[in-house]
Write a structure and sequence with these properties.
The chain has about 325 residues and is α/β, with parallel strands linked by helices. It contains ten helices and 13 strands. It has one domain. The strands form three sheets. It has a nine-stranded mixed sheet with strand order 1-2-3-12-9-4-7-5-6, sandwiched between helices. It comes from Ostreobium quekettii.
């Protein structure tokens, strides 16, 4: 069962698919709204290319001054989480462009603290980004912050945008600090999943990712698996030969390909499913069986993520598309 649209003052239904924006079954997305979505999404995804272009032409004084002004913004502190920023109409057009919808399989425990582990990263984590714009609506009464690749906070405007959405660099100290006061979301696969786009299957990088498991155990935070169906189809990147290079340096290098061969996200639906929480008992970092408990919880989480995917893939039209955990 699906709900076309859920106003903010209505309690979130459990087990039902909810569309973030009102669906226009007969008219579709208005042309002017699609134009706004496409132009702003293009600037967002192509921003690193735009910066590189500006750097190349720094010999021209006006461009040099512009570059100095842009990069100087990285040096100044930025407000962490700005709720009003999430209300920008631009984000409404983005969610409409991707027909963004979501479902919670279970009601969350008000007394629990969660680490929200999101998959897949895809070439760009558009699903997690759209979810971030709806935090007050999807998680009413909860404080939800997030962590992202440190390189994002060294890029002009990206730093401001992600900070205003409640995102901070993904290092252990920051993660610990955020978890002491809020639920924390993380796209676990990170840059390592950027090249994992296949026509015949979904693939996520989880086999070697245990940092979030360790944080959950050390803090007694429950794990909340999330899968963004469709996120892997938004953009592609190549050549694949750059995959190991990007993983080692934890940077994204390559040619983005989307709609019309441009770095413009394809207009595909994205369906976010929030799975059943994996309960976690606190185990201290210095406990002699800490690593054993990490391995046990990691296996338990993998099984739950696989279960979440298998139970919901048919609703998205992917009944014959398997999930491979690498």
């Amino acid at each position: 069962m699906a709900v076309d649209f859920l106003p903010e003052n209505v309690k979130l239904p459990v087990g039902q698919r909810v569309y973030s924006e009102k669906k226009m079954e007969h008219e579709g997305m208005k042309p002017h709204r699609r134009l706004v979505a496409m132009s702003t999404l293009f600037v967002y995804t192509a921003w690193p290319y735009i910066l590189m272009f500006l750097l190349i032409f720094s010999w021209w004084r006006p461009v040099l001054i512009l570059n100095l002004a842009l990069y100087s913004t990285v040096l100044f502190p930025t407000k962490v989480f700005w709720p009003e920023f999430l209300n920008m109409s631009m984000f409404n057009t983005w969610r409409e462009y991707f027909s963004f919808s979501y479902k919670f399989e279970e009601e969350l425990d008000a007394g629990s603290r969660y680490i929200i582990a999101e998959f897949p990263h895809g070439t760009y984590p558009v699903g997690p980004l759209l979810a971030g714009t709806l935090i007050p609506r999807m998680f009413p009464g909860r404080c939800v912050l997030s962590v992202g690749a440190s390189v994002l906070f060294r890029i002009p405007l990206y730093k401001q945008m992600f900070s205003w959405m409640g995102c901070q660099p993904a290092d252990r100290k920051t993660f610990q600090s955020l978890l002491e006061k809020a639920d924390v979301a993380a796209v676990v696969g990170g840059v390592g999943e950027m090249f994992m786009q296949y026509e015949e299957k979904e693939q996520v990088l989880l086999g070697s990712r245990k940092g979030f498991i360790k944080m959950a155990l050390a803090n007694g935070a429950d794990l909340l698996p999330v899968y963004h169906f469709g996120n892997s189809r938004v953009l592609s990147i190549g050549p694949r030969s750059l995959m190991n290079f990007c993983r080692r340096l934890r940077i994204s290098v390559g040619i983005l390909v989307g709609r019309w061969g441009l770095p413009l996200p394809r207009e595909v639906p994205i369906y976010m499913v929030v799975g059943r929480p994996v309960k976690v008992e606190k185990v201290g970092w210095d406990s002699p069986n800490f690593q054993e408990k990490v391995n046990e919880l990691h296996e338990k989480f993998k099984k739950e993520l696989q279960r979440l995917y298998e139970d919901n893939k048919a609703d998205f039209g992917w009944a014959k598309r398997p999930l491979v955990i690498a």
